[in-house]
Amino acid sequence: RDRAVIRRIMDACTVCTLALSGEEYPYAVPLSYVYEEGAIYFHCAKSGHKLDLLKACARASFCVIGKDQVISEEFTTYFRSVIVFGTVEIIEEEAQLRSALRLLAAKYSPRESEAHLAKEIEGALASVCILKLHVEEMSGKEAVELMRQRTKCAY
Fold first, then answer.
1. Run of H or E residues at 55
2. Is this model's pTM higher than 0.85 or not?
3. Sign of the CA dihedral with 119 first, then 95, 60, and 51 last
4. Quick check: 139 pLDDT over 50?
5. Which of 21, 91, 118, 144 has its CA 20 to 30 A from that of 47?
């Protein structure tokens, strides 16, 4: 689909589902994220099930739902979503950690002062792990009714 629409969905949504290869079952976990230049960044604890799975298999999928409106009289749903496939890297270099934390802070705390953001980032560096999903495939999908509405609005 249209890359601009995909970008709007990615920027507007605040929670994704990251799916990993589990030992017995697939493992899907909701996370906060930020999308920037062909990569998606997440933060998590420095240890845990998610990291154990990623160390065994770095391949992952990602999904966000930008709209989910049930239209009962039409027996349908007006939806927008994005699905991504890629490989997850655990970021260890401090400059990259700072950069990813700054991107996350800009998305989730855009009204905070620069001084407050810097203080929070410094405080988080020792305890946070940053994951970077390298986007290999990305696709967006939306209900045809929403595509028609968007096209009408463009004129």
1. helix 49-56
2. yes
3. negative
4. yes
5. 118
Q: Spell out the residues 6+ positions from residue 101 whose beta carbon is closer than 8 angstroms to its own.
A: 43, 121, 124, 125, 128, 130
The answer to whether residues 105 and 118 touch, using CB atoms and an 8 Å cutoff, is no
Say whether 66 sits in a helix, a strand or coil: strand
Residue 54 tokens read as 């990623």
| Residue tagged 């950069």 (tokens) | 99
Number of H helices, E strands in the chain: 5, 7
The whole-number pLDDT of residue 33 equals 97
pLDDT tens for residues 69-118?
Answer: 888 998 888 888 999 999 999 999 999 999 999 999 999 999 989 899 89
What is the CA angle 124-130-136, rounded to 5? 160
DSSP structure class, residue 32: -
Residues 6-51 have pLDDT tens digits of: 998 999 999 999 999 998 999 999 999 999 989 999 999 999 999 9
Q: Write the CB contacts of 64 (distance below 8 Å, at least 6 apart in sequence).
A: 9, 10, 13, 15, 16, 17, 33, 81, 82
